[in-house]
Design goal:
With 771 residues, the chain is of the alpha+beta class. It has 21 helices and 28 strands.
Length: 771
């Protein structure tokens, strides 16, 4: 008889159902975990590629930035604006701001360092021929180059960037920067990248040259990604490995199911919850990053737009819409011609857009003119670059533009202002120069300065030697050019806030020559005036000489008669002879005074008494006074005062003033003809006053009296009063005229009283000669 089962068949199925359900649940759970793990790996792989591409672009842009700094040094060196001292200063500044740079040097075409900062920093590079050869090739062909990685003592693996300094068809050298790969990663790999991946450089053989972090990371299999790194190239690649966090995967879960389905389910739920929490955190971080990037993009003042490879608009930012005046919905999906292209510039816009689609973009970008929706035109500067997606595929182009309308307008206004300033400066007859106060370097000069001092170059580091030793605000003579200049100098601030000298030199050669001619003419006129005056005093001379000559003749005749008669004693004879000698000296003094008065000679100062001056002048005026019946009134209160002056010149001044006063009263009634000569001391000044009772001088003609060739006389030359004022001013005095209350005019000569004055020096000889 067949044995029956303990449980009926339906019950066995009921008991088996939980096991089957548990097995099915476990299978479904394991399958679900495997599926989730696969999706997570795919997501991590996509994030890895995106982060590696971002990191590669960031590192490459930094190397491009270093290359741009080298290009700036090369351009300044070619223009001559970079000296050795400024090179060391700028190199230290660049290295302080970029810790990955180990050294900066200027090398020749053989790779030898001309300037190096720090010193001997380029010597390790000489030990690597493979690194020297790209530098030599860069210097020969005049293009930027980079070297393969090489070992730099104390810094590990490094590369060198070389930018040649090209002038015309020749290369003046190359600026080389040694960049540490380890320092590059340490400086420009952000913490959130280093927390998730190990970023490193590997060579063509897969050997790690530098990494961050430096500890070894086991091979992550598919969770690692390599990308070519150029510059510098030479097989160098950027590799990223994902840190393994140890995904909990129970390969023997079926053996544990029997130990407790509840624990397995709780564990599965806990794992799923943790996974969901990590996923949510990652999504939130990604959302925050996307929002931050969107906020950064919306905060830009530069317009950004992206197109596909056919030119269809894919994306525009807020600044771009604000510039052109269109909404994003109106621009997205559009194809050329775009509505913001003006009709007059459409051809240029099409050419530029075609160049962008071909991948052509100059370093300085494109200069275009766009229009807003309102029709207003504005100028922009446009830059473009390839648009790469997360898979590294070239999907289109992204461009940025900046509104340069105001900048262009300001530049044009500045240029116009500069042109006007240069035109005004070059239109001046005076030579204008701006020189550095410390070293005398010529910073600015106008055309008159360059023509006067024969400078061929309009600017440049020249030394303003013609004005270095000239005294400011004085006349000086240039013995090289044979010219006289009136020089004015003042200290001011230059555009860079440095202290400079502003020198203005006016060519006064013709003026000095005219002054010399005027002086010579004045001397001739002065001599003529003396001769004319001499003719007028001829009768006075005859009268003055007749008296001493008659007295000499009478005394001589009386002496002869007395001697013949024998009735004179020796004492009486001696007295008569003394009177004869006195009259002879009187006649000689008259002749000598007339000769000095009319003699042409240079000014000569000496001590002279005021009374002697007046006696000489009044003796010469005796004849005109008698001829015109003029009464002479003398109020001489300062005859004992002495002046240190030219006696003959002052006699000429007093003679001219008295003679003019006499002639002014010729037509007046005889009883009113009165000439007053007055002297008195006023502190440290001496006043000589000559007053007449003539018709007076109208107020409107007072200032004209002292002008050359102005006269109120029918036969006058108009030089007397001008000569008088010149003589008085030469003696540091003043000559003024005023009306007398009771009719007539008063001429007042005020002279300073000094013990002795220095002789005129060579510096003011021209002033003396003008007299």
């Amino acid at each position: 008889m067949k044995r029956q089962s303990h449980l009926p068949r339906p019950d066995r199925w009921l008991w088996a159902m939980p096991n089957l359900a548990l097995i099915c649940f476990l299978a479904v759970g394991v399958a679900l975990l495997l599926f989730i793990r696969h999706n997570e790996r795919e997501r991590q792989h996509d994030e890895l590629i995106e982060d590696v591409l971002w990191q590669e672009q960031a590192l490459r842009s930094e190397l491009v930035g270093r290359q741009n700094q080298l290009e700036t040094l090369a351009h300044d060196y070619v223009r001559g604006d970079l000296s050795e001292g400024s090179f060391y200063g700028r190199a230290s500044t660049i290295m302080a701001a970029n810790s990955e740079i180990l050294a900066i040097a200027l090398t020749n075409e053989y790779g030898d360092a001309i300037w190096s900062y720090p010193a001997q920093a380029m010597e390790p590079l000489q030990l690597h021929p493979a690194a020297i050869e790209p530098l030599q090739r860069s210097a020969r062909i005049g293009l930027a180059a980079s070297t393969p990685p090489f070992d730099y003592p104390g810094a590990g693996q490094a590369i060198a960037l070389a930018v040649p300094a090209v002038q015309g068809n020749s290369t003046l050298g190359s600026f080389v920067a040694v960049v540490s790969l380890k320092g590059l990663l340490r400086t420009y790999v952000p913490w959130w990248i280093a927390k998730r991946y190990q970023i490193g450089f590997v060579d063509i053989e897969g050997q790690t040259l530098a990494a961050r972090p430096e500890q070894a990371v086991p091979d992550a299999g598919p969770l690692s990604y390599d990308i070519a790194f150029d510059p510098p190239g030479y097989g160098l690649r950027l590799r990223a490995k994902v840190f393994q966090t140890g995904w909990p995967f129970w390969q023997h879960a079926l053996y544990w199911v029997l130990a407790g389905l509840s624990a397995l389910m709780l564990w599965s739920l806990w794992v799923l919850k943790r996974h969901m929490r990590e996923r949510l955190s990652a999504e939130r971080a990604m959302l925050r990053e996307m929002n931050m990037r969107q906020a950064l993009e919306d905060s830009l003042v530069s317009g950004v737009f992206a197109t596909d490879r056919e030119g269809r608009t894919l994306h525009v930012n807020r600044a771009f819409c604000r510039m052109v005046g269109f909404d994003a919905e109106q621009l997205l999906g559009g194809i050329p011609p775009f509505p913001y292209w003006p009709a007059e510039a459409r051809s240029q816009c099409e050419q530029v857009f075609a160049a962008i689609l071909r991948g052509e973009c100059p370093v300085n970008g494109f200069s275009l003119r766009y229009q807003r929706q309102s029709g207003e035109r504005f100028d922009v500067r446009l830059y473009s670059s390839p648009l790469i997606d997360g898979d590294g595929r070239h999907t289109g182009w992204v461009a940025s533009m900046t509104d340069v309308t105001e900048l262009k307008r300001e530049r044009e206004a500045l240029k116009a202002s500069h042109e006007r300033f240069v035109a005004v400066l070059n239109g001046l007859d005076a030579a204008v120069a701006v020189t550095d106060r410390r070293n005398g370097e010529l910073l600015l000069s106008n055309r008159a300065f360059r023509e006067a001092f024969r400078l061929n170059r309009p600017d440049g580091p020249l030394c303003a030697l013609p004005l270095r030793h000239a005294e400011p605000d004085d006349e000086w003579y240039d013995p090289i050019l044979g010219r006289w200049y009136q020089h004015h100098r003042r200290e001011t601030l230059w555009v860079d806030q440095s202290n400079v000298w502003l020198d203005i030199a006016t060519d006064v050669t013709e003026r000095k020559q005219a002054a010399d001619r005027e002086r010579q003419q004045t001397e001739r006129l002065q001599q003529t005036a003396r001769l004319i005056a001499m003719g007028e005093i001829a009768s006075s001379l005859a009268h003055e000489l007749n008296q001493p000559l008659a007295a000499i003749s009478s005394y001589s005749t009386a002496c002869r008669n007395l001697v013949s008669s024998g009735q004179i004693s020796p004492t009486e004879l001696d007295g008569a002879l003394e009177k004869i000698a006195e009259q002879s000296r009187r006649a000689g003094a008259i002749i000598r005074g007339i000769r000095e008065f009319v003699q042409k000679r240079e000014p000569k100062r000496s001590a002279c008494a005021v009374g002697d001056l007046l006696d000489t002048v009044l003796s010469l005026l005796a004849a005109p006074l008698n001829r015109y019946y003029v009464r002479l009134v003398e109020l001489r209160q300062a005859d004992d005062t002495e002046l240190y002056a030219d006696k003959v010149m002052l006699e000429q001044v007093l003679f001219n003033l008295c003679k003019n006063g006499i002639e002014a009263m010729v037509d007046s009634p005889q009883e009113s003809r009165e000439l007053t000569v007055e002297t008195h001391r006023r502190g440290e000044w001496l006043d000589l006053i000559v007053a007449d009772r003539g018709p007076g001088i109208p107020a409107e003609e007072v200032e004209k009296l002292f002008r050359p060739f102005y006269t109120t006389k029918a036969e006058g030359m108009g030089m007397g009063l001008n000569i008088c004022r010149t003589i008085v001013e030469h003696h540091q005095g003043r000559l003024v005229v005023e009306a007398r209350p009771d009719g007539g005019s008063r001429f007042i000569v005020s002279l300073p009283i000094t013990e002795r004055r220095p002789e005129p020096s060579a510096a003011n000889a021209s002033l003396v000669h003008r007299l």
